[in-house]
Amino acid sequence: MSSIYTLNLTALLALNAALFYTRQKAHPTPPTSTPSPKPNPKPQNASPLQSLLTSPLTPFLTVYTLTMTSDWLQGPYLYPLYTSTHLLSPSSLSPLFTTGFLSGAISGSFIGSLADTYGRKKACLAFCAIYALSCLLTTISPSLPVLFLGRVLGGLGTSLLFTVFESFLVSDFKNRGLEGRLGETFGVMSTLNSMVAIASGIGGEWLVAGTGTNKAPFWLAAGVLMVAGGVMKMTWKENYALNGGPDKKSDEEAKEEKSLFKTLSDPKILALGLSTTVFEGSMYLFVFFWAPALQSSSSSSSSSSSSSASGTSLPYGVIFAAFMASTLASSLIFGKITERLPFGSLLLSLLGVSSLCFFLAASNTSSSQFTFWVFCLFEACVGMYFPTMGFLKGKLIDDGVRSQVYGFLRIPLNVFVVVALLVTGRMESDKAFVGVFRVCSGLLLLAAGGFWGLVVRKSGVDVQVE
Q: Which spans are transmembrane here (predicted)?
């Protein structure tokens, strides 16, 4: 069983190597020349990755890479840690995961405002401490109160991770006059994210094999977060909403609240919010259900009892690395696609293809390889979704309420996942994922229709972001 997934990963890595070679051939290393007098010049022949890694944005990209490494290290092992190490019953898993998302939903209503007012760098530093503590609590003991506290902190940390870091970056870009490079930068971030995810998946597999415990990736993740916090503290400059700070809150409060309401009621933002809720909600449900889905299909396609859904037959790290190799491949062609396809049209396409992926995964549960490759296609959509959504939000949302809006957009997302987990938690069938995937498929089609009706049909596929 392990050998076929290793072969799949090798094929995907070979594809990525070919794409890297193609990009380097298209963007050869530029010859040494006289520096341009313009600030922050972009080398004419440099690839986006070369350009950004040698820019003043390197400190941000370094911290971003470290924080995402910490997230990816532990991700594939949360499910086996609960089931194989802590020996929790299946009935305990849904409440634990639900607690994490509920924590994220509640915190989304206030962390954005705090970050905008008291500083986004401070919020990012808080993330490092909170998420590291969550990692440690998750491994300390199988005691449910401790594990639930770990999930509460994990939900808060996730909300910070996907709110304040992006908000800090967009604000920093605007202060530097680099708004025109947002799309390119989010594409590079997606590439870096996929690369560290692959390395984390393979490294996590070796780490677990070497230590003999599923706790090891969580310990390493906590250490990486401490390093990220140190780099951030030494190299980042603070930024606030409206170029202000905590002392300016009272003067701008009424204006900000009005702007927040106006932003959230904008049809374009509503369409983005619906797309975010459904796509990212489906992605989180996928994270929860991909292992049971592959276990079920492996059991159905094999006559050997060793392939039963025991939770130990699948090479989680290798499979996870293969998924991330799929996101990397899509991020490598992201720039070429956006040269020909507007961001609005691209988001619409991603919603449609993702709907098809969930429909196919729900319709065929007897072939593990078919299911695996459908999941890889969905992960390829994920690789393009985040830079696409990051660009659109960066263009359409005012900086004065950026973190607040990002936080509020995550509330319905977390509520959606909580409701789904509560419903599926009551299902005794080991194929509960089939119903979940079918619902996700339908909702993704609904989100695509809403985005087309509220944005593309009314405003054009370019979403009038220029």
A: 92-111, 123-142, 148-170, 182-204, 216-236, 269-293, 313-334, 346-364, 370-392, 404-423, 435-456
